[in-house]
Amino acid sequence: MGTHRASNTKPNLNSENAIVAATGLKYDEPVVTDESDFETVDGLRVESY
Q1: Residue 20 pLDDT more than 60?
Q2: Distance set, CA 31 to CA 15, 21, 26, 27, 46 (Å)
Q3: Do the Cβ atoms of 46 and 30 come closer than 8 Å?
């Protein structure tokens, strides 16, 4: 297992949200959402509405 960039806790995302988060990280784009689960992903920019 690797280590997380900012913390050593594992995000708790379902498989669909994990894909969205990975896409945001890959393309260095924010995720626009009303779900707080994305806040636990290190390095992911989240814009809430």
Answers
A1: yes
A2: 15, 7, 12, 11, 5
A3: yes
pTM of the model: 0.77
CB 25 within 8 A of CB 8: no
Please report, for residues 7, 11, 12, 45, the alpha-carbon distance to residue 22 in angstroms, rounded to integers and kept in the order given: 17, 12, 13, 11
Task: Compute the Cα dihedral for 27, 33, 38, 44 and give only its sign.
Answer: positive
**Angular region, 43: left φ>0, alpha ψ -120 to 50, beta rest:** left
